[in-house]
């Protein structure tokens, strides 16, 4: 997309203000509209950031296979953090540069413990980033419907490389918040449980893996401080990232737990809230006081 220079009028910049060095944004429920599309306005705002020297980093629960094409389509051509921080995708080459993962045995042990505390109708799946193995009772969502292998015995699944980036548990008749609480109680510090808004869907990452941890690692490599990062999100799995970043925005449709913590609230995802905040940030020359 060609950038219209009028998107960043120099005359409207606040004298002496400093732009952030990096914008980190969640995808579903935040940058993307409810139908999964991204508006021309949002693409233009992201392009304006890039033209102003601000790196745009996608930080999502989606696995790598569900990010690459989208990232390129909306003009993000550097890096994307995927699978809630378990993987770092190089959007230029399409290669995964960093992976935190479970062994098959670790993943199966987690599933066994979760079966004891989650509703009887819960189905399970194992995610590699490139493919997903799921039980017949696991109803695939957007991210898990592609490259999916259905098996009655997850123990028999053997992924390439022999490791998984996520364990997924889903029961559409259950509340995700309740499932998350049960999962955290039984898993303790053996894994990082979160949810990103899908009804009855809980995502289990390797221990200590969060969006914030991998974002901090990426920023350290580039010499970027947390104070120089602006982050956007909507769900509990975004909270570590939002509390780590120097400036954080929740979209108006965010989960109550997010709205209770984040001071800055922009318009909803369906109203291009991220674009609106970025437009104001670029025009002002940097974040304003909350």
Which strand-content bin applies to the residues?
15-25%
Strand tally: 16
The secondary-structure element order is EHHEHEEEEHEEEEEHEEHEHEHEH
- CATH-defined superfamily of the largest domain: HAD superfamily/HAD-like
What is the CATH topology of the largest domain? Rossmann fold
Nearest-integer average pLDDT? 89
* CATH class division of the largest domain: Alpha Beta
Keywords: Hydrolase
GO molecular function: magnesium ion binding; phosphatase activity
Protein name: HAD hydrolase family protein
GO cellular component, one term: cytosol
Written overview of the protein:
The protein is of the alpha/beta class. The chain has 2 domains: 19-99 and 210-284, 3-Layer(aba) Sandwich (Rossmann fold), CATH 3.40.50; 102-205, 2-Layer Sandwich (Hypothetical Protein, Haloacid Dehalogenase-like Hydrolase, Chain: A, domain 2), CATH 3.30.1240.10. Helices cover 28% and strands 21% of the residues. The chain has helices spanning 27-31, 40-51, 68-73, 104-115, 176-187, 211-222, 239-244, 256-259, 273-284; strands at residues 22-25, 55-59, 79-82, 87-90, 96-99, 102-103, 123-127, 132-134, 148-150, 163-164, 166-170, 192-194, 201-205, 229-233, 247-251, 264-266. The chain has an 8-stranded mixed β-sheet with strand order 5-4-3-2-1-14-15-16. Strands 9-8-7-11-13-12 form a 6-stranded mixed β-sheet, with helices on one face. Strand 7 (123-127) and strand 8 form a beta hairpin. The protein starts with 21 loop residues before the first strand and ends in a 6-residue tail after the last helix. Mean pLDDT is 89; it is low at 1-16. Pfam families: Hydrolase_3. InterPro entries: HAD-like_sf (IPR036412), HAD_sf (IPR023214).
